[in-house]
Every structure is written in C-alpha cells, then in structure tokens.
Design goal:
The complex is a heterodimer. By secondary structure, chain A is mainly beta. Chain A has no helices and eleven strands. In chain B, the strands form two sheets. In chain B, strands 2, 4, 5, 6, 9, 10 and 11 form a seven-stranded mixed sheet that branches. In chain B, strands 1-3-8-7 form a four-stranded antiparallel sheet, with no helix packed on it. Chain B has strands at residues 5-7, 10-13, 19-24, 31-37, 44-50, 53-56, 65-68, 75-79, 88-95, 105-106, 110-114. Chain B is built from no helices and eleven strands. Chain B is globular, with a radius of gyration of 13 Å. Classes of the chains: A mainly beta, B mainly beta. Chain A binds chain B through residues 2, 4, 30-31, 33, 35, 40-45, 48, 88, 90, 92, 96-104, and chain B through 4, 33, 40-45, 48, 55-56, 89, 91, 93, 98-109, 111.
Chain lengths: 111, 115
C-alpha cells in the first residue's frame, strides 16, 4: 500500500517558472525523501528531510516538512526543460526500514 | 561514479513462461531492494535483503516470485509462471546500511511485458 499522496498528479509550467509539489502522508515518519524519475528510467534521490527538520535546501530545490499536518512540499526554482520528470515522495516510518512511495507528480517544463 | 546494474533492460515473454532478472548493487552496499512499479504508480517494495538474508518479503507473491542473494552481492528475481498482471518495471536499489535513513541508489530497471 502507498503511504504518500502527491498533489498535483500532473503539472505543466514554462521554463524559468517555479514548480511546487506537495506530499501528504498518513502515519508518523522517521524521514521523508524525494526522488526524481525520468521517463522509463530508474529513480534518482534528490533530498532527505528528517522528522525533526522543517526545511532543507539543495541547489534549486527546497523541501519543507510539517509533521503536524503530515505534509511536505518540494519547490523547484527557475525550472529548466531538463527538470521534466516524475517526482515521488517516499516515507520511512518510525521503527520500520521500509521506504513507501507515493504515486508521484508528473512535471512538464516547456521550453 | 558507481551505479546499480540491472539486466536485461527489456523483457517480453508469454504468460506461463519463466523470467529472471539480475541486479548488481553498488560495491559495498549491504542492503538490496527489489521494487515493482506499475505504470502511473510509485515503486512498491517486493523484497529487501541485508547481506544474504531476507529482511522483508511481505509483499512478494511467493507462489510465483522468488528472490535470492546467495553471496550477499548480486541478486536474482524470478517469476514462474509469469501472468499478464506482472507487466511492470522491476527496479533494483541498494544502500550502504541496514537502516533506511540513507538514500537508496536505483538501477535503470527491467521493463517486463507479459503477452
């Protein structure tokens, strides 16, 4: 079963715009991770945020975590055509070693 | 840069046939994962190995799926017999430690089509 639910399911923007994707989950977590998947390929880890952290940055990526609302957001600033991909959030529950993925947000960045 | 290797990249088979997928994790990674990803969905864990031992196979359909990691390095996932509903991407991933606090490194996947 899938723990996270990404919103929106699909997002289309112009190059240079910012893209925001949201993830909601149901149970308490140890950490939350975001992954990118280019069409038909494997997943690439983007960023990990622990349950005691509220915000993390990596290059053009900004992730926030609100454990009281059981939600996270991924912001990609100044998007590029190469950012076109599906983005997945994945959670690790406390006391578990399992990484549980959501259904993903499909991002299209138009040149 | 070290990568997770998988083969084959694509496999087309007829239902009731046997198929096998191979994965070679990043050298030194003790934990190995097999995921199944249906089109339009996120990956779902099938089996997790810590070295040569199975840690979690609760979502593995054991009547037809089997997985092994005999020497604690590379791994094989087998389906026998394949069914139409098995058509999916099969992803292998590895990570350095036993606890999922670190990122997982994914291979390119094997796209299985069952006719």
């Amino acid at each position: 079963s899938q723990q996270g639910e990404e919103d929106p399911q699909a997002l289309s923007i112009q190059e240079g715009e910012n893209a925001t994707m949201n993830c909601s989950y149901k149970t308490s977590i140890n950490n939350l991770q975001w992954y990118r998947q280019n069409s038909g390929r494997g997943l690439v880890h983007l960023i990990l945020i622990r349950s005691n952290e509220r915000e993390k940055h990596s290059g053009r990526l900004r992730v926030t975590l609100d454990t009281s609302k059981k939600s996270s957001s991924l912001l990609i600033t100044a998007s590029r055509a190469a950012d076109t991909a599906s983005y997945f959030c994945a959670t690790v529950r406390g006391g578990s070693e399992k990484l549980v993925f959501g259904k993903g947000t499909k991002l299209t960045v138009n040149p | 840069e070290a990568e997770v290797a998988q083969s084959p990249r694509y496999k087309i088979t007829e239902k009731s046939q046997a198929v096998a997928f191979w994965c070679d994790p990043i050298s030194g990674h003790a934990t190995l994962y097999w995921y199944r990803q249906i089109l339009g969905q996120g990956p779902e864990l099938l089996v997790q190995f810590q070295d040569e031992s199975v840690v979690d196979d609760s979502q593995l359909p054991k009547d037809r799926f089997s997985a092994e990691r005999l020497k604690g390095v590379d791994s094989t996932l087998k389906i026998q017999p394949a069914e139409l509903g098995d058509s999916a991407m099969y992803l292998c991933a590895s990570s350095p430690g036993g606890l999922v606090y670190n990122e997982q490194f994914f291979g390119p996947g094997t796209r299985l089509t069952v006719l």
